[in-house]
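Regression test case RT-17, inverse folding.

Input:
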């Protein structure tokens, strides 16, 4: 769908699900693209009370070795992006609430 990597991650963001499993699902989608690229080290992090402007010490990170587990009502900033050698980078951002039905965007709207 139009949301691609973020959309797949949001569907899986339910209480009790390991962050590294959601990160892997999003990485598996973008790994299928046929052009050379480097994926970001993290695909999301917590915001709210645990929001840090210094990314070195968040409450909750989504990355391949994360030990975090989603809990109901966590607020996560999804930040999937890739670097294209010699071209630049592209990414998308969404702020998501973790629910029993999956992640729900706090800023629903059209994605272009």
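Golden output:
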């Amino acid at each position: 769908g139009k949301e691609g990597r973020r959309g797949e991650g949001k569907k899986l963001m339910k209480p009790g699900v390991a962050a590294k499993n959601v990160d892997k699902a999003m990485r598996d989608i973008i790994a299928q693209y046929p052009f050379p690229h480097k994926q970001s080290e993290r695909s999301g992090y917590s915001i709210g009370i645990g929001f840090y402007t210094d990314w070195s010490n968040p409450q909750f990170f989504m990355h391949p070795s994360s030990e975090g587990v989603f809990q109901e009502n966590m607020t996560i900033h999804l930040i999937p992006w890739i670097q294209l050698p010699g071209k630049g980078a592209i990414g998308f951002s969404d702020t998501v609430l973790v629910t029993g039905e999956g992640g729900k965007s706090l800023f629903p709207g059209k994605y272009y």
